[in-house]
Amino acid sequence: MRVYSFEANPASYKLLKRTLWWELGSSEHNITTKCALVSDREGRAEIFHRGAADLEASASPGTATEGGKPLEKSSEVDAVSLDGLFAAGGRRIHLLKVDTEGFDPVVLRGASQLLSQRLVKFLVFEYSSKWRLAGHKLTLKGVVGKLEQQGYSCFFMKPHVLVPLTGKWWQDVYELKHQIFVVNVFCGQTADHDLFDAYVGFGTSSYTLLYALANLQISGSPDQAEA
Length: 227
Hints:
Low-confidence stretches: 221-225
Strand order of the largest sheet: 8-9-12-10-11
CATH architecture: 3-Layer(aba) Sandwich
CATH class: Alpha Beta
Structural class: alpha/beta
Mean pLDDT: 84
CATH topology: Rossmann fold
Number of strands: 12
Radius of gyration: 19 Å
Distance between the termini: 6 Å
């Protein structure tokens, strides 16, 4: 299995490369890294630098301005889409993990071919108040609904249980309005028996087990090769 890691901030990318060297002891490993902003289009993109050690660099400018222009320094980086990188080859992705400072739904929009073809087995993305600041106007309800059309069921990842979000399980209170809130969302292919195993293995009560038995696929399916 090969791991692909993308980091848009050049400073953080250098730290990533250095950490891999320290931890693994050489450049020979199964981790491929790329300094690029993952988005729904390809070309060049602007990122804004902020936070201690530049750890909060983002594709959206901050609220502080001077003369109508952002106060933060910015730089241009390469922009890529997951469809552009992986869809043509038809390679399967076991786990897609996204955490992009509020731009997670834009990354998923750039992976629509992979998701529609169900080449992604599991995915995890972050939902937070940064979605509002990012300015893309995409909502969690819309993203979960789109993923349902593509054959996925999604859940909030809470400490001891996965809370279902898809279909009739959606509650409007889940959509952030003004709260400061961060939660990971886990999704898997609805018809995949491995989603049942993952759901039950994460932690269940009598109520959540009833959900799994009624809504998730239990019977096995042939194993498929994955990237």
